[in-house]
């Protein structure tokens, strides 16, 4: 069966520090992968999506970047975190039939 | 990015009451989906709708794909405390090749 793993679950980082969040999918190949951010009590904002290895599309200009070094691995990064990068980050993948399946999320607090 | 208009923004109801929420768009979608997000978790798919006019149930949840393809509705009957969370609608124009467009969310609180 297909599963999606996202870690870490929570992270507290100082302003100016680097960031690396990882997402992996099991049980499928060549999935479409997505990174979303959710501010407290707000909706889902699509940050990046990828349809294949090395293929990244950015939805909004920002301090973050994404990479897909392997078929089932999607990484969200930053060289220097800002306070405004705080939020709940969700990885998702598309099973191809309908909708997305989401990971359990990473709560990032930049202090 | 584009978001769907979802209402109400929040609801505070008593256990046992029925709940209705809706989602509207200025453009047509071929798939409508409803997700629920528990606090601190990722959204989980509740119901998927594929055809205009379709009415689909999942336990106490019933969702409808609007006949114009520009709206969808979710009803929850006889609410219980574990219904608490944020409910998101999402629209998709075509399977697999198109990104989901999410609604702004409805936050539901249920009081015993």
Which word captures the global form of chain A? globular
| Average pLDDT taken over every residue of chain A | 91
Number of helices of chain A: 0
Helix content of chain B: under 10%
- Radius of gyration computed on alpha carbons of chain B: 13 Å
How many β-strands of chain A, per DSSP? Answer: 11
Q: Point out poorly predicted stretches of chain B.
A: none
Describe the structure.
The complex is a heterodimer of chains A (111) and B (112). In chain A, 0% of the residues lie in helices and 58% in strands. Chain A has strands spanning 3-7, 10-13, 19-26, 32-38, 44-52, 55-58, 65-70, 73-78, 87-94, 101-102, 106-110. In chain A, strands 2, 4, 5, 6, 9, 10 and 11 form a 7-stranded mixed beta sheet that branches. In chain A, a hairpin with a 5-residue loop joins β4 and β5 (44-52). Chain A is globular, with a radius of gyration of 13 Å. The mean pLDDT of chain A is 91. Chain B has 112 residues and is mainly beta. Chain B has strands spanning 5-7, 10-14, 19-24, 31-37, 44-49, 55-58, 61-65, 71-76, 85-92, 101-102, 106-111.
